[in-house]
Amino acid sequence: MQSVMSCFLSVPLLCRRWGWVGVLAGGVSLAGMGLAQAAGDNTLTLQLLDRVNALEEQTREMRGQIDQLTNQVQQQNAALSKQIGDMDFAMQHGHGGTGSSTVAPPATTAAPAAKRTPDDVLKAGNDALLKQDYATAQADAQQVLSGPKSPRQVDAQYLLAQSLAGQKQYRQSALAYYDAYNRAPHGQRAPSALLGVAATLVALNDKASACQALDKLSSEFPEPAARIKSAEQVYRKRAKCS
């Protein structure tokens, strides 16, 4: 535009001639750009149409598959209904087809299972533990622990710790053993529970903590049962306690 204006100022006649030529050239350029843009729009439109056609074809294929599956389900349901009808007919008229009816025996009501007491559950759990059925022993122990509070829950907690140790869940077992000790620190299970804590810590290779548990055992129970004392010495050697 600036060149055109300068032409008008310098050589009016000549500028007018060439200025209009420039304007016309610019118009031709803009028209070319418009045509290129239109061509691009047409290409995009064709691509979109191709995409829509592809989606419609996929939709038709999916509908065909759905119709096929629906027919298969209907056929299977019809066959099943026929089988059930044949079975009902055979039951009502006898398997031999002689027309003789058979009377079904009266239904017997199963006697309700007797509710197990905590003692029954613990006995079953300890039996499972001896059979190395640790999952059943764990379930029985947890059943007693989830019930009403009772002194037998200490035994259930100890059984839980043993079942976890049998499944090599040593960290959870150590916590369960220590919980059994905390429930009754001066009870019958307390020395065995502390020994269990030490044993599982040795299995975890936490020898320092195992030695601390053994020291607590010897400090609080200086004269334990012979089996506890013997096992204590074994685990002291394994943990290399000073």
Strand and helix map with partners:
Blueprint (H helix, E strand, L loop, with lengths): L1 H9 L1 H82 L24 H13 L3 H12 L6 H15 L3 H14 L6 H14 L3 H14 L5 H14 L3
Helix pairs in contact: 1-2, 3-4, 3-5, 4-5, 5-6, 6-7, 7-8, 7-9, 8-9
Rg calculated over all Cα atoms: 45 Å
In percent, how much strand structure appears in the residues? under 5%
**Overall geometry:** elongated
The helix content is: over 70%
Q: How is the biggest beta sheet arranged? A: none
Q: What is the first-to-last residue Cα distance?
A: 101 Å
The helix-and-strand class reads mainly alpha
Mean pLDDT, to the nearest integer, reads 77
Helical segment count: 9
Total strands:
0
Question: What is the N-to-C succession of helices and strands?
Answer: HHHHHHHHH
Poorly predicted residue ranges: 1-31, 88-103
